[in-house]
Fold this sequence. Notes:
Layout: H1 3-16, E1 32-39, E2 50-57, E3 62-69, E4 75-78, H2 103-116, H3 167-170, E5 177-180, E6 182-190, E7 196-197, H4 199-205, E8 218-221, E9 247-248, E10 256-259, E11 263-265, E12 270-275, E13 278-279, E14 282-292, E15 298-312, E16 314-316, E17 322-323, E18 327-338, E19 353-362, H5 376-380, E20 388-398, E21 405-415, H6 417-423, E22 426-428, E23 434-437, E24 441-445, E25 449-452, E26 457-460, E27 470-472
Parallel strand pairs: 1-12, 9-18, 14-24, 14-25
Antiparallel strand pairs: 1-5, 2-3, 2-6, 3-4, 6-10, 6-11, 7-8, 8-16, 10-13, 14-19, 15-18, 15-20, 17-23, 18-19, 20-21, 21-27, 22-23, 25-26
Amino acid sequence: MSSKHILCALLLGASLTACSEVDLCEQSHPHQAGLNFSYDWNGRTDVPDTMGVLVYKVVGQQKQIAAVRTSDNWLCIFEGTDIPDDLKQHTPATPDESTDGNESANALRRLSAAYADEADGDDTPVVDPSDPTEPTDPDNPEEPTDPDNPANPEEPTTPDDPSTNNPDERYEWKSVEHVQRGEYKFVTFPLGNDQLDYSELNHFLNSPAAESPLQNVGFTYKQYNVDDPNLNKPTLGWNDFNPYAKYIRPDVSTLYYDSTQIVSISSDQLTTQRFKPRTLSQDIDINFNIVKDTKNVKFTIDEVWAEISGVPNHIMLNTGYLDISKTSKIMFPVTITPSLADANGKDTNTNSRIRCQGNINVTGIVNVQRGYGESIEDVRKKIYGPGIMQVIIYSHVTEPGTGRVYPKKWQGIINLYHTLNKAKLITVTPDGRYVRKNGDHGTINISAEIILDGNTIGSDDSQGDALDRWISTDDIHVDI
């Protein structure tokens, strides 16, 4: 065979196989695959109503977000738009749905029907839920647009139709979605959580890959000023002596996360990606004691609040790691248990000891940072930045001589450098940039006790070996 004949045969063979890659194929068939998600919650009961899934196609770096209802794993995919703050939960009407109870068979039938429609020229690989499912453009000559036309009286014909503002109408929930075949990475994360800020993720969805690569993208806790009502803090004079960062809400919910390695999605198949979400947040108990010295002044402790700094607020989407350089504070109420209480469990003038217990559910606590060349003693003196705890103690004092009872508050602060080292709540990555939690539960036991004599705060560690010390904020001069 001549070289010309060989060359012609090679070109003919190449033309017959030109549709092997979906991104290069110019024919009308969609090369689509069915995709849905399932979750193994391992018996957890605090499951969110909605989870998000990043659907990331590696070749071409196509970025989409799926919302998944955890009640039934129905989903919708939206692309190129901002993540909604809230998705209403509902069961969508699907008139053509089989009711035989076999969801897997139903999903396969729907997938087969999708491929049967290939002859209709539907070559759109992903349905954008921001587009209406029926053509409503009044310029479309194939759709009746006259509002008086009785042929389709329920069809919205004006942009002011209120149904277009209903999230249930904007997002089409399905048991199976269709995507292009290829290699994908999936990440599931909290969606519709009003405690989180998704602006960075929105920027990622709407930006070129070179401008906003996946490894740089995350989501954050919303942060608030000290006087914001969302903090639910006490109204009586809280002075912030560690104003390096803002606060997150005290009622933050458990955050769930999972990610996959690269997953291959094939055409003409239904792929169910199964997640086993882990918690990004950590349930942390904080324990300390107050010792009352009432020899000279009688007083009762009514209420205690605390604040701790160093909560990582930026969560990396690709890995679930926590950015060590971005931290916040959290304020929380403290449960007090007097050793000698009255009939109502309240503190008394004669009681001398109170056990204090707080609980927070956060992504961990970053410790006091040790700078280059700093000694341990230098670190211990810091009362600014992460790893610092403050308390405010509300009481009623009986004035000696007159017996007059009046309210009084004390504030104290402690550097928890050694205490947090013992607690081992988190592990720092080798590059020193990120942390990950050590387990779902942690405990901070502060062995240094707060000493109150009715006038000021002191510290004592006769019951332990801590190097950390409480100090009175009366001795602190901070520009707040």
